[in-house]
């Protein structure tokens, strides 16, 4: 049984907390990451790197904090302990969340955190400061105006550090994807005529929680015509016989993302839908086959689009066809460099991880997106999860 025939209560009861948990990233690996960042910062011609709160700060320090209006950032200077800039009242929580030793420089609520950054930069004699591209402009501009250091964009440094995943990162991502695929299977079994999209969304969140994730990191459930819109339409549709179902969801494990999409038939669908589904399947496989070390990222996008154009779809972003890139990098951010899109000439390297999702949209009728993730090896690509088998068989047996 793959589609329908069960209930949310039955499926949730079957799920148990995940037993084979991937280990946390070791302190030694984080230290190696910081050493690599410092090396790349020096090659960039900068004396220090300022990393803003968010995915990149978590990558280096383990701190699972998102960006807010209060400045939280880490200054990496070669040859010394990292310096964390944070609100004074957050020091206790900061110390509890950090995975590495740091020097803390704090600011009170009535003080200017940018002035503290410029003070520390001056104390250390930093002449050129590499700035995290995700640091808000007003903070970066304040550092530029209030200090003597020249500023440069640290995108190249952070991109090169985070793009290639370690074995530890791959293991965390594998767990997240395995969990989400199991949730997908359970969600397919609860479908019935009349079930609403919101019911499926709520079930998927509960199922992720039952497995031990903190719920769904996002969830898109669309029925029928709404599948023609890559991120869906507003409203809460009820499922009918003979409709396509598109479910796109994921979770995080220690910050590392899953993001899997299945598109399948609920009952009998038209020959045209089946034809487009088969083309989508072929395009996804072509993208996988083109993902080889040394090839530019854009080559994977070209391979998927060649399949579509041969079938009379497109070209380029014209519809019916593929309205967006073939895939995106994934890790601590759900979308991160590099990208499988024309113009991204980043050479593929072992350890890079990507979504593979060359969605086909037939405007105002339906859309088909098959999305699984792959990582680059020395000999080619490897799937994290096995792709969908057929339009009426969403999961490999």
Overall geometric form: globular
- Mean pLDDT across every amino acid position: 97
Order of helices and strands: HHEHEEHEHEHEHHHEEEEEHHEEEEEEE
- The tally of structural domains comes to 2
Low-confidence stretches: none
Radius of gyration: 23 Å
**Largest sheet descriptor:** 6 strands, mixed
CATH topology of the largest domain: Creatine Amidinohydrolase
Instruction: Briefly note the structural class of the backbone.
Output: alpha+beta
Helical content class: 25-40%
- The N- to C-terminal Cα distance equals 11 Å
Beta-strand level of the residues, as a percent range? 15-25%
Number of helices: 11
Strand order of the largest sheet: 4-3-2-1-5-6
CATH architecture of the largest domain: Alpha-Beta Complex
CATH class of the largest domain: Alpha Beta
What does the secondary structure layout of this molecule look like, with pairings?
Blueprint lengths: L7 H7 L12 H18 L3 E5 L2 H7 L11 E4 L6 E5 L3 H7 L5 E5 L5 H11 L4 E4 L5 H10 L3 E4 L1 H9 L3 H23 L7 H15 L6 E6 L19 E8 L1 E2 L2 E2 L2 E7 L4 H20 L6 H14 L16 E3 L6 E5 L12 E4 L3 E3 L3 E3 L3 E6 L2 E4 L14
Parallel strand pairs: 1-5, 3-4, 5-6
Antiparallel strand pairs: 1-2, 2-3, 7-8, 8-11, 9-10, 12-13, 14-17, 15-16, 17-18
Question: What features would you describe in this structure?
Answer:
The protein is α+β, with helices and mostly antiparallel strands and 397 residues long. The protein folds into two domains: 27-161, Creatinase/prolidase N-terminal domain (Creatine Amidinohydrolase, Chain A, domain 1); 166-383, Creatinase/methionine aminopeptidase superfamily (Creatine Amidinohydrolase), CATH 3.90.230.10. It has helices at residues 8-14, 27-44, 55-61, 91-97, 113-123, 137-146, 155-163, 167-189, 197-211, 271-290, 297-310; strands spanning 48-52, 73-76, 83-87, 103-107, 128-131, 150-153, 218-223, 243-250, 252-253, 256-257, 260-266, 327-329, 336-340, 353-356, 360-362, 366-368, 372-377, 380-383. It has a six-stranded mixed beta sheet with strand order 4-3-2-1-5-6, sandwiched between helices. Strands 7-8-11 form a three-stranded antiparallel beta sheet. Helix 2 (27-44) packs antiparallel against helix 7, helix 8 (167-189) packs across helix 9 (197-211) and helix 10 packs antiparallel against helix 11. The protein is globular.
């Amino acid at each position: 049984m793959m589609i329908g025939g069960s209930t949310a209560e039955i499926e949730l009861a079957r799920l148990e907390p995940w037993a084979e948990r991937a280990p946390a990233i070791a302190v030694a690996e984080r230290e190696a990451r910081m050493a690599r960042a410092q090396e790349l910062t020096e090659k960039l011609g900068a004396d220090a790197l300022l990393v803003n709160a968010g995915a990149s700060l978590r990558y280096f320090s383990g701190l699972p904090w998102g960006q807010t209006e209060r400045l939280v950032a880490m200054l990496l200077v070669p040859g010394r302990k990292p310096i964390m800039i944070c609100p004074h009242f957050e020091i206790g929580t900061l110390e509890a969340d950090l995975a590495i030793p740091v020097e803390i420089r704090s600011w009170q609520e009535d003080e200017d955190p940018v002035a503290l950054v410029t003070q520390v930069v001056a104390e250390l004699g930093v002449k050129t400061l590499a700035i995290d591209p995700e640091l808000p402009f007003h903070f970066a501009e304040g550092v530029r105006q209030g200090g003597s250091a020249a500023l440069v964009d640290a995108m190249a440094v952070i991109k090169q550090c985070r793009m290639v995943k370690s074995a530890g990162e791959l293991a965390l991502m594998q767990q997240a994807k395995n969990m989400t695929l199991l949730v997908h299977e359970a969600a397919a079994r609860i479908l019935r005529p009349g079930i609403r999209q919101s019911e499926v969304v709520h079930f998927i969140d509960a199922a992720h929680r039952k497995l031990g994730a903190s719920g769904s990191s996002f969830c898109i459930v669309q029925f029928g015509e709404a599948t023609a819109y890559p991120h869906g339409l507003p409203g809460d549709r009820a499922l009918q016989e003979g409709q396509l179902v598109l479910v796109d969801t994921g979770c995080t494990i220690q910050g590392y993302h899953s993001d899997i999409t299945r598109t399948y038939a609920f009952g009998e669908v038209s020959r045209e839908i089946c034809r487009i589904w088969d083309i989508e399947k072929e395009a996804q496989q072509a993208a996988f086959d083109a993902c080889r070390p040394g090839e530019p990222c854009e080559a994977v996008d070209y391979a998927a689009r060649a399949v579509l154009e041969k079938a009379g779809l497109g070209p380029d972003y014209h519809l019916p066809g593929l309205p967006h890139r073939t895939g995106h990098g994934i890790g601590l951010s759900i979308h991160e460099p590099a990208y499988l899109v024309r113009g991204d000439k980043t050479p593929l390297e072992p350890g890079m991880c990507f979504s593979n999702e060359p969605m086909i949209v037939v405007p105002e009728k339906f859309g088909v997106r098959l999305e699984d993730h792959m990582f680059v090896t020395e000999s080619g690509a490897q799937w994290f999860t096995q792709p969908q088998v057929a339009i009426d068989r969403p999961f490999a047996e």
